[in-house]
Every structure is written in structure tokens, then in C-alpha cells.
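Worked Example 4.2. Read the sequence first, then its C-alpha cells.
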Amino acid sequence: MNPVFTVGIRDIPEAEGRAILQFLYEHCALRHWKVRFRWQQDSVAFWDNCCVQHIAMWDYYPQVRPGHRLTVIGRSIRVIKNAYGHLLPGGALIHC
């Protein structure tokens, strides 16, 4: 879901879809969802776009922040377990 590329919600009237999308965009932008990564020499950051939104802050000028994109091809379903090998609440499944 991205306001630049999302044009509506299938099978939802246009005005209602716009209202839902606006709510979702605002919800995703709430401060408590955000993570700020503090770069240090040799830092590496990665995320799974199936589960997060990446919104970069351009606050590092004049430093350079190179990036490389890795894309996994295909779809899979993974059962997510915590560090102790237990299923997350509800037996969470992540669909990618």
C-alpha cells in the first residue's frame, strides 16, 4: 500500500475507498510504528516489504548512503516462531 501507486480498493465505492486508504496511510505514519536506524560504519539494514513500509528520511546530507536491492522471486508461506521455537499467538502465518 503506497499513496503514489495505490489507486483504489477493488469492489469498494471510490469515495469509501479513498477514506479507507487515507485512514490506513495516517495509521501507518503514526510515530509508534516507526523505527530509526542509527548508521555506524559497516552497518547493514534490511527489511521485508511483505511486512513493513520503507519511508527513508533524507537527513544524512552531505553523507552518501548507498543501497542495494535484493528481490526474492516466488511466493511462499512460512510459519513464524519466536526465539524459543513456539508459534506466535494465533499460529501467525506470513504470506509473501
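Now turn to a second chain, presented in exactly the same format:
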Amino acid sequence: MAAGVYFGPPEICQLTWCFAKVPLRDPALLGRLSGAASRRLDDFDGQHFSNLAWGFSTLLVADAPLFAQLEGACSDRVVAFGPQELANTAWAFATVPQPAPVLFEEISIEVRRRPGSLGPQHLANSLWASAKAGRGDRPLFEALAAGARRRSPELNPEHLTAAAWACAAFEDGAAPRSCKRCGFYDAPLLEALARAALRKLPEFAPRGLAGMSWAFATLGNPGEAEDRLLAEAVAEAAAGRARELNGRDAAAVVWAVATLQLQQAPLLEAVGAACEGGALGLAGLGAKELGGFAWGLGRAAASGAQAHPALLEAIACNVDETLLPALRGDCCASRPLDQRALAMLARALGALGLLRPLWELLDCLLTAEADLSADLASALIAAATQHGQQAREARLWQRLAASPRAVGLRAELLAVAPVRGAAAGLVSAGPHAGVAVDAAYGARTYERETHALQYVLAHAPAGDAAAVLAAVDEFCASRRCWMKLAGGEKAAVLETVACACEPELILEVGCYIGYSAVRLAAAARAWGGRVISMELDPFVACAARGIIRHAGLAESAEVWVGHSEQLIGRLENQGPMVGLAFFDQRGSRFCEDLERLERLGLLGERALVVADNVLKPGAPAFLWHVCAAGGPFETRVVPLRDFGSVGVEDWVSVSRSRPRRQRSSAAKQRWVPPRAVLELDREADAMRWRSIDGHVSPQEWREFSRHMEAALAQAGVRPQMATDEELHSWLASAVSRRIVKK
């Protein structure tokens, strides 16, 4: 091989290709080939460039100097590349990965200039490469998607999986705080991919089944067309081939089936049997895969299904033998933790009753002094509270109080009951230097909420609820800052509903800083009612507790910390059923939380359900559900201005449960919204995530609100509107019917 340095471009590339095919990863040989190629790049043509890059990337040899040279040389000559060379070069640079913005821009221009020249394999590989590189190049994606739609019948299973994965993984300027990937949602393309995949499903490898299910679940709940048929068929095929699945594939399919809310029992039984028989292992799964797998099982358990004992044992073993050692290593090396995955895993372990591994995970994170994200801390606090682990809960609150993000909230964080009752030696007042929160997830600060609390404490007399609410209004007006509050006209609607039905127990999902909780609790005190408000973020929850306590309502309103999927079940132990539910969280969760309340029998007879922001940014699937003719609910919608958003229309919906005899037979079954409604749900979610990062102007909100109203009508969602007077009359009839029934 010493003479290899004298080889010309064809020989260099042919040798690299051969090594990649074997594969043979000989550092010395590859080093010589790299050196020879570097000296002869001026003599390379498009095929040589793409073959060399393909070979090194296939071998996962990240030769940064070579790829840097290749980027410059390819960028200058990409206009002469053929379709195969364009696709292979893009694939190679995305696989290494090697940042190559100039090269990808040149490839994008060429692909868009001659879209009809790319074959099925070129289209699939180019889609995959563009998504993998994280380019967010929508014009390129649209051009490739159009080609893939036309040639979808020619795509083989591997290409179909690559194209679907690319759509799900596409990042269009991922939001820094929300860290939410919305994907590239092209309904005609997804239908075409689903049709082609259904015809070729027996040819799919297990990895392909997992990839397709993950992609369609990530892109959102499919409607009633081919994509839903595909999701169901993939779940059935995976169940039939469970013994061929590896742990990662099984985790992807189980997570996807749970996310799409498909029938889980056959798949989980088959996967459990494969695990019990030794054909399937979970030992190698990382936090993300294990969290998704366990969460899928937890969803099934929440619906009353029994988890296979072998799967529970395998999850516990993975936590002990794989996850915790890796977690300790990451903490010792100060590497960022995947806190989103750990939060999902923590919630799942609690749902499955796997308490020993859950406490081991919690103790490991506390010992390592990790700076916990709000989501992960919330999951752990909810579990510790539910299972009476007061010492652990106290340590969690201490850890949050020591976080740099807790400035201004430390007193409230340390005022939590378990912390007050803990031994004095447990309480630490100063910040610590622990493992940092991943910069892409969870690293938000709380200046706005902290300043709102401080303003209330300084400007409102203690024990005066009306003054507290006025102080929050003044704070928002004086700082010209928007806060997610149901104030103004919305507050009047909410108070009207509460006073009309005088419920013993009011549930609020989405507490934020406690503005609505104060208003509801102040009203409910007149008839002896109380409020339970759920808040995911423990920092925000403490600000809310401070405001509620200052209003003198600590005995009438309590704030539960955790995700609604963890907390709603705890309402079974609260005595009276929920008489009024107020949804003020993410609109795409309204349906799921309402369904959980119904399934657990927690809603009182003819309870009222109020939902905010059902137009801006919207809750299309929820509106479709509660406004359906002959459905389980009767609904009125009040149009009004969004609080703090001048001139932007929003809707508040008020729903009451219909007696079962008044429901149509179809309404007694679980309905799946039509595709048009689900697509609007995606739009609403995407707009919501954009707004989290402050990327939506007032004019954009006005335009979006008008668009959502028109699109809902076109999709068949035409709620019955009500003025204030009409709402009062409707509520009066609801209350009188309840009195007559009693």
C-alpha cells in the first residue's frame, strides 16, 4: 500500500469504496488514501468526489481536514454533478456529520434547478440528508417532497422509511426555549408514502417498521385516511414479528402506538412474550429510548391494561445496569443530560409502579447535584408527593432553590411544606455548582414571574384578593408585557360560569402565576368551594403559591406541581367530583385531559368545562369534540379579545355534559377527528411553540386568528356563539335542569 499515494482519482475512490463495502476500518490505510486524495482534488470529477465522501462517511471516519477540503472543492463544481452525485455527497456530509453550509446551499440550488432529474433513491437520500444536517431548507424540502410524491410507487421500503423519517426530523428554525420540532407536514406526501408502504409492508425490515411508526407518530395523530391505516398495519406487523425486533425498534414502535392512541394490547403482549423468551432485550437502550418505551407501557397501564411482568423487569434492570451508570458518568464529566427523556422516564416509572428504580433515579440526580430542568423536577416532585416521600420532595425543592434560575423565588421554593418540615441541616440557602441544564432544553429564566410576584407583594394589601388581581393587571400594563392570563373579558366569563354552578370542587389545568386560581377561589369561598390548580413548572407554581397566599386564599386554593397526566388520577381521593374544569394549558392537551377525567369518572353530573384560547392559537380537535352534533357535550363559545393582545380576537368555550340518552350512538364511541381538524391542531401547536420564543408579532396573531376561524368553519367546526346575555340564559337553564333532577 506504500505505493497508494501514487494512485489517481479513480483508484483512490475505488479503494475507498471497497473498504466501505467490506467494511474495513484501517486507520493507516485510510490515512494514506486521505492524504493522496487531498493532493489530487483538482483532478477529481463529480463521481470521484461523491464516492470518496460516501466511502469515508460510510466507515464513519470523520476526517475533518479532508471533508473541509472536499466542501470547498465540491461547492465550486457541484453544478456539474449528476443526480446520484448530488444525493451521495449530501448524504455523506450529513452522515459524518461535517458542517458544510456553502456546499448544502449549492446542492439545494442545483436540486431545485432540475427537480425532475432525481430518481427515487436520489429523492429519498436527499430528503434524509437535508433533515439530518438540520438545514431547515424549506424550499429544498418542498422541491424534494414534490418529486417524492410523484415517484412514491417506485420507492422501496428503505427509501419510504428515509423519506418519512426526514419529514418528521425536519427542523425549520427549532425554537431555542421550546425545543419543539414540528417537522415538515405535507399531507399529500404523507398519504402517498402511506399508500406505497401499505402495499410493500411485508417487505419492510423491523427497523423500517420502527422508522415508519416513529415518523408518523412524531408528525401527529393521523386521520382516517391511508396514514392511519398504515399506522395500524405497522403496529399489527410489529406484533407479528416481535421476536425480530431489537430493543430500539421495539421502543420506537411502542412509543408510536401509544402516541397515536392505537390499540396497544396485541403489540405489548407480543413484545412482552419476546422479552420473556429472551428474543428481545432492553439492556442497551439509552435514556431516550427507555423513556419512550416505558412511557408507552405507562399509557397502556393508565387505560387499565396490565403490563407484561417481563417488560417491567427489563425496564428496572436497564435503570440499574445501564441508565444509572451512564448518568453518573455524564454527571462526573459535566456533560449535559437529556432531561426531557429523563422526565418522560420518571413519569412512566411512576405510572407503572416501578418505585424502586424511580427513587434510585431521583437519588442519583440529587447526589450528582444536577441542575434539574423544570420538566424533570416536576415529574420527580409529583411522584414524591403522590407516594409520601417527604424527605426526597424536600431535597428536590432545595435543589430548585439553589438553582441560579431561582433568584427572587428562593423564599417561595423553601416555603413548601416538606421543606419547612425538613431538618434544618437539609436546607441550603446558597446556589450550587452542579451539572448544567442542557442549553437547548429547560434553560429558561423567570424574571417576569418573579417581578409579578414582587409587584403584588409590594402593591396589594395582604388578604385582599381583589387588590391582588388589580396589582397583576397593573403590572402587565405598566411593564407592557404579555402574560398568559385569563383576565379582562375572559375573567368575567370564567367568574360568571363559576357563580352559576357553585361547584364544590373546581379544577384548573394550567395555573401559571395563579391569577385565575385567585379569582375562582375568591368567588368559591362564598359557597364553601375550593380550587385545585395544576402547574407543570415548579418555579412558576411557587410564584403562584406566593400570590395565592398573599391574597389570603391558601385554604381555598392549592397548587399541584406536575404534568396533568400524572396528577388527574389523584383527584379520586379529593372527595367531591369536579363541578367545573377550566383548561388553560396547551390546547392540544384539552381533549386528552377531558377524556381522562371522563374515563376515571371524575366529572360530576352535568359538570361545566371552560377552555381558554380555543381560537388563538386554538384547540381545533377539542372544539370538534365538544361541538359535535349529538356528541357528549353541548357547547357555547364566547368571542372576545385576548387579554393583553390589542385587537386580537379569541374564544372561550363553555361546555356541559349531555345525558347519555341524548347522545347519538356514534358519540358513545371514541371518535377520531377528520384530517382537516388534525392539520389545524398541528398549525395551532406550531404557532404556540413559536410564541413561546417571542417570534409572533401582533399582526401575525390577528391574521392567524382570522385564518383559524375560517379554517375551522371549512372543516365543519361551527360552534354556537353566545353573547354575555345568551351565556347567562344558557347557564341558568343548565343549573335549573340540575336542580329539577335532584
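Notes for the reader: The two ends are 94 Å apart (CA to CA). The domain at 387-416+446-483+505-575 is CATH 3.40.50.150 (Rossmann fold).
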